[in-house]
From TrEMBL:
PANTHER family: LMBE FAMILY PROTEIN, N-ACETYLGLUCOSAMINYL-PHOSPHATIDYLINOSITOL DE-N-ACETYLASE-RELATED. Keywords: Zinc. This is PIG-L family deacetylase. It holds the Pfam family PIG-L. The keyword Zinc applies. It comes from the Bacteria. InterPro entries: GlcNAc_PI_deacetylase-related (IPR003737), LmbE-like_dom_sf (IPR024078).
Length: 243
């Protein structure tokens, strides 16, 4: 796909961002989130795991504690203060009713107009294989968006005081290979860089040849490249999937 991106719809006020791991949002989508919070939109995060299996040289309990704290700092950098960890096991997140129920619970809790996640297709833009965690969370999120509005699916959520919510209009998939829309992140880039840099402990564990040694350069280059299809401004692309 080489045609210009269309502007992502902006006529909404509340968004729930759902990802598998701490740091998933910080490789681009957080720059759009910084713009949205600056505009007065409400943004909440639901992070399915604590990323505890992400560092081979650290015990999972220590890694999960560190990465959770880093995610809270990253979220605050872009103006997000509602962050829930759903505590599914990192690396082995399964599609199924428990995950759908937890995601439906989050949707009923925050009552968003739209949802945001990251690419959950089999492959990344590079052609590399995507992880099972990302794939399973994305599909479960689409299903949970419908579950959240059905009073007869997970009726126990109503017993928790969470009434059905059918107000989700669409899912925006950040970095999808099928992206057709984008957000101008000129005003969110600096905060997005701060958010990614907040994951310092995790980034330090990556192989030395990874590009995260220069967080600012990595994000600026990536979003500038995307912007070649969006008026030559830094941009974050999204695929829009109707609910």
């Amino acid at each position: 796909m080489t045609q210009p991106y269309e502007p992502m719809p902006a006529d909404w006020q509340r968004v729930l961002c759902v990802v598998a791991h701490p740091d998933d949002l910080e490789y681009g989508p957080a720059c759009a989130i910084a713009r949205w919070t600056a505009e007065g939109k409400f943004v909440a995060y639901a992070v399915v795991s604590r990323g505890e299996a992400g560092i081979a040289t650290m015990k999972p309990a220590d890694t999960g504690e560190m990465r959770s704290a880093e995610q809270l700092r990253a979220a605050a950098a872009v103006g997000v203060h509602d962050v829930d960890f759903l505590d599914h096991p990192d690396g082995t997140i399964e599609y199924g009713l428990p995950l759908r129920r937890d995601l439906a619970r989050s949707i009923r809790k925050y009552r968003p107009d739209i949802l945001v996640t990251i690419n959950f297709y089999e492959r990344w833009r590079s052609g590399d294989w995507n992880t099972a965690d990302h794939r399973n969370v994305g599909v479960a999120l689409l299903d949970a968006a419908n579950d959240a509005g059905n009073p007869w699916v997970f009726p126990e959520l109503a017993d928790e005081g969470l009434e059905p919510w059918s107000g989700v209009r669409f899912l925006a998939v950040g970095g999808s290979p099928e992206s057709g829309h984008a957000v101008d992140v000129t005003d969110g880039l600096a905060a997005g860089i701060e958010a990614l840099a907040a994951h310092a402990g995790y980034l330090a564990s990556l192989p030395p040849d990874n590009p995260m040694g220069d967080v600012a350069g990595y994000l600026t280059t990536k979003l500038t490249r995307f912007g070649e299809r969006f008026g030559h401004v830094p941009a974050m692309p999204f695929e829009i999937i109707g609910i």
